Amino acid sequence: MFKIVSKRILNPTVTEMEIYAPLVAKKAEPGQFIILRVEEDGERIPLTVAGYDREKGLVKIIFQIVGATTEKLNHKEEGEYISDFVGPLGVPTHVEGLKKVCVIGGGVGCAIALPIAEKLHEMGASVTSIIGFRNKDLLILEEEFKNASDKCIVMTDDGSYGNKGNVTMPLKEMLEAKEDFDCIIAIGPLIMMKFVVSTAKPYSIPVTVSMNPIMIDGTGMCGGCRLTLVKEDGKRVTKFACIDGPDFNGYEIDFDEAMMRSRQYAEFEKKKREETCALYKKAN
Amino acid sequence: MPFDPKKHIMPTQDPAIRATNFKEVALGYSPTVAKDEALRCLNCPTKPCVAKCPVHIDIPAFIKKIKEDDLEGAYSVINESSSLPAVCGRVCPQERQCESACTLGIKFEPVGIGRLERFVADYHNENSKTKAVKPESNGHKVAVVGSGPSGLACASDLAKQGFEVTIYEALHKAGGVLIYGIPEFRLPKKIVAREIEGLKELGVDIETNVVIGKTITIDELFEEGYEAIFVGSGAGLPKFMGIPGESLKNVFSANEFLTRINLMGAYLPESDTPIFHAKKVAVVGGGNVAMDAARSARRLGAEVSIVYRRTEKELPARVEEVEHAKEEGIKFELLTNPIEILGSEDGSVSSLKCIRMELGEPDASGRRSPVPVKDSEFVEDFDCVIMALGTSPNPLIKNTTAGIETEKHGCLIVNEEEETTRQNVFAGGDAVAKRLLEK
Prior knowledge:
By secondary structure, chain A is of the alpha/beta class.
């Protein structure tokens, strides 16, 4: 059993928790992920590590409530326990040698982008961050990003906070103004990452994206998380996000296929979440 | 008593009923039938069966105890050599091992050794009140990586000798392939749980949720004071065919499909883990895993076809599993190989394009390899395709441990003592042995 040491509501659909998991905390690096189960007989879900405190043995996770499992997790309070927590899984984000980086986070993806921005900032790299949300109510981690960035741009789709528009707009402006980033690291909805890639392409700046596909074991066993990379010569290569990723070269990802695959269980998830919500309402 | 040339039949659930539930198919011998079957054993002095048993159980000796109505005595004989009799009695390929060498089998059907092993183990588990006792510690610590059959067997043997054993398991539940792979209807989870309880009684500690190579490395285990490490990490990486359409929705590896059902209980309505309830499923492959996936899909209500590129004779699955699958209404498209999976507009599987095959000249392994028949392509509608083409070992340990070498298939190289190329790191099970070809 793993203790929830702290819980913080970041916005109505996004929650942050710190879990006591010293073995995971000892090893975790930005870009890696964990798999948890809230309770016995529950579902296994992957969540990317949003931070860690090696001394206290804590691992930070930030999750959006989308299905039954995240709904149940959100009903857990500080001091309560979840049944399983395993990691760190996947390959850490490559940050070595980077001097000037644009870190882009979209929605809850900002939770994963933040520790990468922080690590780069600590290393002395110049960090420009662009964080985007649908509206002001969904804004998370603004202060944290400001502290970890030389420049932080906040975008909202409806203009209710920061600048109006999506994250590719300031990116395009900067690229047109000949900002010479070593690398762009983009983490967020698949559609956002796809457009970051197409925006950056004319400028030939490397783009790293973090994939979050459907997954069960996280150790390469199920193949559910497979995605297709399209190599320069057009060759299509299958990779498993759990062991080969979750970070990939954005130019190689077949985003359309990944978006299609991500909808495999969308209806089931929605139905299960509604059932779970109904149960909680009944209990109250 | 007249001599019976045939094995006593294993009673099973009626095929029409069992194809709609996940309860165990084979119901087990009654004590009377078990004794009658035991009496078929000639107790021949050469004991060819023992030599063909991977753990060399003294088979005639345990069968003799059944003849004498001493079932606990029979269990003790098995237990001297085997740690998992209730599991092995159910899922070992006895027809290729012990029973293949049975003297009786030269003229008649061999003794049903597996069925008797299962009977004895089940009798013991149901009736014995005695718990295993933790032997006196010899003061030496050993770590076992993986809680599948090889890890459990290794841990049990070591614990019986007084070693302090800790098993590390990556998943949340111990049992490895016995839990995530083999379905309830072939190996009930409570049987596995009972065997694992027995290990705990022997003093074995099981740490779940620890991925060796990620959470803790082999080197760190040595630093923690383990003097030897046994790697039983299995062969968990699924293979795909590399044909167009494999990324469509509702194309699954057998591993994913079975893990959802077995480990996560996705067939139960209350489960939070989703599973696709298909109407018509093609399972590609001919091994036990293919049979398990096909029969599981059938139990979820689908019409199922096994697509296999050789003939029935080459099917690597156990004969019993093939028979059970057929009884449950699973179709066999033999000498057939998929060449493309076709999809609908929303990216889901809509049909499978296959080509008919014929057997050509024997290859290096002596098997006649299948070759495509020209212009024999055809398309059949399916809404789900499950790939059961075999698996390869997980490279995690190799990639994170200095000094560990593998052969070209990724299997760990070991010497006659089962020691890897790294001193004091031993390995067994599918992580080393090239498993039976699944295709």
